[in-house]
Design brief:
Elements lengths: L2 H18 L13 E9 L2 E12 L2 E8 L7 E2 L1 E5 L3 E10 L4 E12 L2 E8 L4 E9 L1
Antiparallel strand pairs: 1-2, 1-9, 2-3, 3-4, 5-6, 6-7, 7-8, 8-9
């Protein structure tokens, strides 16, 4: 019977410590905020994009444009950043016919640069993407 109070005190202490443990930290998107020059290599054809990222209500948001004016300031959707990998979707006109298609980007932040791929599932296409901050 004497052990029951000790067990209760130990259990309460464990619950208290668990409650005070720091919650898992959210990734810091600050290194991504700003304007990025992206180079897309689609089988030897190069396209140049501008990615503008900002924080809106504590979340990453942004716009994508093509440097020759094919499209400009298209809002990003489903923006995610896990501390290493940036992912987002965008509906933009795509070669060869200029039709609007869903393009998915997935790039890793590495040494202040973005490196990854974009995919256009509708066309069965993927292309390499590299980016540097302007």
């Amino acid at each position: 019977m004497r052990n029951i109070p000790r067990i209760l005190i130990a259990a309460a202490a464990l619950l208290l410590v668990a409650g005070l443990a720091p919650a898992q930290q959210k990734p810091n998107p600050a290194p991504l905020v700003g304007s990025w020059a992206l180079e897309v290599n689609a089988g030897g054809e190069f396209y140049y994009l501008t990615l503008d990222l900002k924080l809106a209500d504590g979340k990453l948001a942004g716009l994508l444009g093509e440097q020759n004016g094919m499209f400009k300031d298209i809002p990003l959707a489903n923006v995610e950043f896990d501390g290493t990998t940036l992912k987002f979707d965008v509906k933009i006109p795509t070669p060869p016919d200029g039709q609007e298609r869903l393009v998915k980007f997935e790039m890793k932040l590495n040494g202040g640069k973005l490196e990854g791929i974009l995919t256009v599932a509708e066309m069965g296409l993927s292309a390499g993407v590299n980016g540097v901050k302007k």
